[in-house]
Sequence to fold (149 residues):
Amino acid sequence: MKLAGTVLLMGLLAAGVLPTRAAQHSTGLNDLVSVLRISLTDSEYKRKESIIVLPDAADPNLVEALSVLHRTTIDKKDIPYSSTLELPSGYMQLVSVSVVEDKAEFKATLGPVEKSTGSTMGSCGTTVLIPLTKVQGVWVAGQEEAAVC
Fold:
């Protein structure tokens, strides 16, 4: 009986039914991709798809997940120069994305964000915060918070 169990276990591993280290990594990546897909769709509702400005020292998993979603990304230093805008319209600055077990949070700022000039304070654009929860294996967005100033 022990031999039959070992053969069954090896067959399941070979078929990819039981998690391996690679599968555990891809599950984490799958969660991140799902969280980003939902959050980007919600935050860009009725807007054209944004160019994503990566946070400084972006996590390689975040970059990979955005690549899986076929999203255009740039580093902050590559934002087009403007004398009046810190972040142009059509750009989204990722502030943070976290996934811990069955909870996730997405925070980003949508352009345009005006630059501050000597006597005037610039606008800060629209910052969105989206909490997500994994329910029965499916990521669900909670109530989006948006701050406009």
In short: Helices lie at 2-15, 21-43, 60-68. Residues 19-148 form one domain. Residues 1-26 have pLDDT under 50 and may be disordered. The CA atoms of residues 52 and 71 lie 7 Å apart.
